[in-house]
């Protein structure tokens, strides 16, 4: 029973962070219809920033949040404005060009980081002197808990932003119907740029908070992009609530998979879930709730 | 016949190549180019012509490689049988692959192929009793010289290009492009889109699997990371396709040549040019630059993808008029 | 037993009843019109006949053979061709190639498909545009291409979905002439149209539907003077 609870806790905590990653991606997908295969690489950039701030300025990872989030916001804006928006105008046979563009961007980002930091594993030690605390017989990682709480705060802030502010409503309008939004006077291009910024910012937050827990190396982007997809598809494209469910579900699935089946299969579980959902539940969890 | 003059001349050059250029390194490069012509042509069939952009062609490449490898390693069957059978095994894989992925459209299809690619890689790694897992397969090379391998690669590349040429001029070709242009319209004029998508995929799988078996026989060593690699095989196939020209017969050939050249150019630092410069000017800055140039080939790929998609979305062959105008304009400016 | 029969067809999209108990029969060689205000279910009806959507209930039969539930390409093979309301040309192919692609349904030989295509293009009056890329055509030609392509599949029954919309008066007359020519060549036609002048003059019989339900069915004259039809189109005030 203890093992079960431990796994459960572990899964939920990780799931909270995964939800942040998924939220960023689902926002981007919902508004711009872009499959961002560079999402994990954006997170990697944020992690490197966190690393640099820690090593050269001694800055605690959690205080690095504002820096990494801001930087990634502008990076996202740059990417959307100069590399992705122009693609709308380009006439080509393959509609999947924007997916390929993000692949290219991901490659460039990875290699730049490899160039600067080499392929060696980097890490930021856990900022707490005793890394875990215990409730009952179950250990809670302090770093994960803090990250989870911060992730929840970010999520709540995001929802408030989307529901209560004008900009947030504009974003939702473009997500629902770009043409109609344009007709209402919304500058859809600008909204897309801002959304990409926000999406990048969210994944940056996730990255910064994951820094004390994961080893960092340039190729870490790929697996995380894949996770982001599983989460987004599980929850239903464009559904922010769904992304939260998706994140937690993936966190739980990975935790239980690792405990009961074996660490090797962790990636496979995500992949298989992904395929199953794509095949049988194309609307994601969102679809289930509509029934 | 006139339009075939160019390619035939190139074919003639290729036939004579290994007798003229005897440096094994360059022969090796050409073998790689020819291999990529086949893979790129396969991808072009399913993606460029039929409009189903696959991110998972490594699944077929790896299957072909392992089929050939396992037949030789475990059953002692000559590697040359493995060549033909490798292609067939890849076709067998194409069935479930298509069945799963063709239910989905557009970007979802792309993602599903990517996921399947990764699943195949994991299976190959985990199923150690069959594939030897991460240990991979090691075979004895049949020939010492590269020349026989070169001609086999040439034959495969020619088969690939000719197949694409013939298919695209036939009924199948019309059907593939119709599916790409508008799947609903295609159905409404009586095309069984599912069936023809499968045919296109099987053809692509066969060509790619063939290339995979060639790789096994030529390199003598494979493991799941090499032959099922998402970045080195699947994405490279896409790059070969788009850089060369999606939906053109000779695009993959041009793309293969460009991509392999660029890759090696950086990996070896201008084929040793950088090293010579460094020896002549042994300043630290130069040596540092040299070191970074050698490691920059993936970076360059990334930049190349971005530039091609922005400015030459139909590839070198597809956007040839645009490219020519750009180059001529540049030359006139200099004068 | 009619040549083509729609039998108590229902179509529900979730909670929305798009078609409720629609039935009608078309005789061979007729031009059968389908009218109704926007959203009444006309295009849905076509999508059901064509196989794009599955029926919720009911049957559709061609020459006594049930086609409901078959896939679109199979239905085309059995002899039903269709044009789309929002035209869907195969954009990057030439007009000729568009039609050759359709022509391959009835023959495996490229030479035959090509000559069939050229023949049908001639029949529909598109010969001068045959080598133009479909994307570059004006709307009237695109609509004509839709019809040409459908004809190349040698249909027994042709479904025309608002082929006259967006055409100027000259183009309109040409379109009507073409439709009559097609009927005279032996093809049965079901036509959906908003432009009353067109549908009233060429149809042999008309079915009027509103909100998924049949209002009335009969000759153009009968339908035009039916009070329910008038009410549906123009409002209650005019029907009295």
Give a description of the structure.
- The complex is a heterotrimer of chains A (291), B (335) and C (240).
- Chain A has 291 residues and is an all-alpha fold.
- Chain A has one domain (11-219).
- Chain A has helices at 2-32, 39-57, 61-84, 97-117, 142-164, 166-176, 178-183, 188-210, 221-235, 240-260, 266-280, 285-290, and strands at 132-135, 138-141.
- Chain A has a two-stranded antiparallel ribbon with strand order 1-2.
- In chain A, a hairpin with a 2-residue loop joins strand 1 and strand 2.
- In chain A, helix 2 (39-57) packs parallel to helix 4 and helix 5 crosses helix 6 (166-176).
- Chain B is mostly helical and 335 residues long.
- Chain B has one domain (21-334): ABC transporter involved in vitamin B12 uptake, BtuC, CATH 1.10.3470.
- Chain B is built from 18 helices and two strands.
- Chain B has a two-stranded antiparallel sheet.
- The two termini of chain B are 37 Å apart.
- The relative contact order of chain B is 0.15.
- Chain C has helices at 42-50, 72-78, 95-103, 110-124, 139-151, 169-184, 196-202, 220-224, 227-234, 236-239, and strands at 4-13, 16-26, 31-35, 57-62, 65-66, 80-82, 157-161, 188-192, 205-210, 213-218.
- In chain C, strand 1 (4-13) and strand 2 form a beta hairpin.
- In chain C, helix 3 (95-103) crosses helix 4 (110-124), helix 3 (95-103) runs parallel beside helix 5 (139-151) and helix 4 (110-124) packs across helix 5.
- The chains are: A mainly alpha (291), B mainly alpha (335), C alpha/beta (240).
- Chains in contact: A-B, B-C.
Topology:
The complex is a heterotrimer of chains A (291), B (335) and C (240).
Chain A: H1 2-32, H2 39-57, H3 61-84, H4 97-117, E1 132-135, E2 138-141, H5 142-164, H6 166-176, H7 178-183, H8 188-210, H9 221-235, H10 240-260, H11 266-280, H12 285-290
Antiparallel strand pairs in A: 1-2
Helix pairs in contact in A: 1-5, 1-6, 1-8, 1-9, 1-10, 2-3, 2-4, 2-8, 2-9, 3-8, 5-6, 5-8, 6-8, 9-10, 9-11, 10-11
Chain B: H1 5-20, H2 24-49, H3 58-75, H4 79-101, H5 106-126, H6 128-131, E1 137-138, H7 147-168, H8 171-181, H9 183-188, H10 193-219, E2 221-222, H11 224-227, H12 230-244, H13 251-267, H14 273-280, H15 284-295, H16 297-311, H17 315-318, H18 320-334
Antiparallel strand pairs in B: 1-2
Helix pairs in contact in B: 2-7, 2-8, 2-10, 2-12, 2-13, 3-4, 3-10, 4-10, 7-10, 8-10, 12-13, 13-16, 14-15
Chain C: E1 4-13, E2 16-26, E3 31-35, H1 42-50, E4 57-62, E5 65-66, H2 72-78, E6 80-82, H3 95-103, H4 110-124, H5 139-151, E7 157-161, H6 169-184, E8 188-192, H7 196-202, E9 205-210, E10 213-218, H8 220-224, H9 227-234, H10 236-239
Parallel strand pairs in C: 3-8, 3-9, 6-7, 7-8
Antiparallel strand pairs in C: 1-2, 1-4, 4-5, 9-10
Helix pairs in contact in C: 3-4, 3-5, 4-5
